[in-house]
Design brief:
Elements: H1 3-21, H2 23-26, H3 33-67, H4 70-94, E1 97-99, E2 103-105, H5 115-140, H6 142-169, H7 174-201, H8 206-229, H9 235-256
Antiparallel strand pairs: 1-2
Length: 257
């Protein structure tokens, strides 16, 4: 299979993991705030480990191979991470959306956008870089792509559950919550395809693609996930989940990558 085909398949598996996480919400299970923070902390740990071990370090390696200079490689990595974080910051600032707890923010016309689409846009901002990371990783090689896909898929399961529980808690039907969660997962397929296509065009883009995806993930971790997990007094559980997620993803990257 081509890198693009494997990336699309990897994105589809991650999307399926997101959707499967919502199933307990459909069959009537309820998640406590402490459990939700534990799971979100786990997601943050997985993403941080993936950003460093699966994206930034390989990006620096490839850049050094291409340029022959560790200084240029470090500069490329720094620029790529900054651009990725800046890209998600721009999306977060300009696209009308709504956070689950802090309310509407973004463009001036957000009041005219249906509430359900505000949630979809918010979750899209969160999930797209994950798909991008999968696609870029498969652009490196299949083993690297498998490592990133596995780690992200594992954290997508509790993430999908958190999304579905949040939506049902706001009054949406269980089946609508499942449908919305599935749609947010589908965004990862698009991101994976774009990530793989970008690095397939030119090998020189690979270090930029890897570090760009890492920067996007780092912004989400710091701006969205960690503050949410520490807002309700469950920071100890959230930190435990964070460490477990980071260690698990590191182990997967070393053993599979």
């Amino acid at each position: 299979m081509t890198p693009l085909a494997t990336a699309l398949l990897g994105g589809a598996i991650a999307a399926l993991a997101t959707t499967s996480g919502a199933i307990p919400a459909v069959i009537g299970k309820r998640m406590t705030r402490a459990t939700s923070d534990l799971m979100l902390g786990f997601a943050a740990g997985v993403m941080l480990s993936a950003a460093y071990f699966s994206l930034i370090l390989p990006g620096i390696e490839r850049a050094q191979e291409q340029t022959g200079s560790v200084w240029l490689a470090a500069a490329i990595a720094a620029a790529g991470v900054s651009l990725g974080a800046g890209f998600v910051w721009l999306l977060n600032a300009k696209i009308p959306h709504e956070h689950f707890k802090s309310g509407p923010e973004g463009g001036a016309d957000k009041a005219t956008v249906a509430r359900i689409w505000l949630f979809i846009l918010a979750i899209t901002i969160h999930n797209f870089p994950e798909g991008l990371s999968i696609g870029v990783a498969f652009g490196v090689d299949q083993a690297k792509g498998l490592s990133v896909m596995t780690g992200i898929s594992l954290q997508d399961i509790p993430e999908g559950l958190a999304v579905a529980v949040a939506l049902t808690g706001l009054g949406y039907s269980r089946w609508k919550a499942l449908g919305v969660t599935a749609m947010t997962g589908a965004v990862e397929i698009v991101g994976a395809g774009l990530g793989a296509a970008a690095v397939s065009v030119s090998a020189s883009l690979l270090p930029w693609g890897l570090t760009f995806a890492a920067g996007a993930m780092l912004f989400i971790i710091s701006h969205e996930i960690v503050p949410e997990t520490h807002r309700h007094g469950h920071q100890d559980k959230a930190t435990l989940g964070f460490i477990v997620g980071l260690v698990l993803m590191m182990f997967l990257d070393v053993t599979l990558g």
